Amino acid sequence: MDTVNRSVPLPPPLPPSGLPLPAPLPEPDASRRLWWALPLYTVAAIVVLGVLVAAVVPVQRWQQAPGSALPVAERLEVEGAERFESDGTVLFVTATGQQMTLLSWVFGALDGDVDELTYEERFGPRTPVEQRRLGFQAMFGSKQVAEFVAARLLGLPAEFIGGPAVVAEVLCGADPAPTSGCRLLEVGDTIVAIDGVTTPVLADVPTALEGRLPGDEVTVTVTPYQSTTEEQLRITLTSPDDGTDRAILGFRPADTRRVELPYEIDIDTNQIGGPSAGLAFTLALLDELSPGSLTGGALVAATGTIAQDGSVGAVGAVRQKAVAVRQAGAEVFLVPADTDPGELADIRRSLGESLQVIEVATVIEALEVLAARGGDLSPLDLDGLGPSAD
Prior knowledge:
Number of helices: 11
Radius of gyration: 34 Å
CATH architecture of the largest domain: 2-Layer Sandwich
CATH class of the largest domain: Alpha Beta
Shape: flat
Strand content: 15-25%
CATH topology of the largest domain: Ribosomal Protein S5, domain 2
């Protein structure tokens, strides 16, 4: 027997005659959906606009932040000398110091690796333009001294030759005259002549002033920074603070000496300024121009100025540079021995065992540190920086 229900469901009964059909449910009102969304969109737009504005509005603060740790060898060009491959690398380290925006100022306050500097802390008595000029000049001098020290340690002849008289800083007394050098000279000016007597090198300036007295006026021909057009200034001579009656123009000269070597070297530093890469440049030149591995195969970073006697001088932003060194994966970071002890303690505490920070007072001490880690010093003349180096 077929028990399957083959019946078709009947439609629901119609309402009694004369009654209306049930009304469909109303669609949601679009205006009701937007009443709560519009405020959210407005707030989001204001926030985005505020962030964009904060990212471009400058504040009177300059950051001191980690920069980068870069291999020196990749920036070296050598002509007239053999270069040797090394299984290690020497890094020079930078820190950044650009003006902060409102946004970077806020985030910088939350970043323990960023220091915020005032205008005076960042530039001192100079203008930003003057500071930049000095930085480039200091980098040039640093490279020259590094080449000199490296050549001497390699047992090669090297000597300095005089450079032009370039203004690094103007020197003012208590009440400088309106026509004094500190009023008229600018950082980066090159002294070309004094009263028509040419001064191609710095040593010619005091010679041209012989017989002059403080208060005398001279005509000084200068070439402004990055210019080829000569200008003439009428300058009143002044006297130094050493109690003598010598007549001076009133400026501190930049180190423009050039080193003469039996080969040609160029270190491409692009737009990087300052003297703090001197130690790193010296170590990299020694490694590249001698057989064997100076670093013992390690990735070594270094910061510190270098003097022609091989001494290593203090630099700034060591804590920020240590962060860049750690990020680069270096094993050793050589820093000047006169680095602030508190700063060194902070660095070691924050880095832990990830990076060995070692203080050195001279390039010889730096080489001894590398030798203790397996570096090969046999090709070097460690007595090359004797009294004859001055």
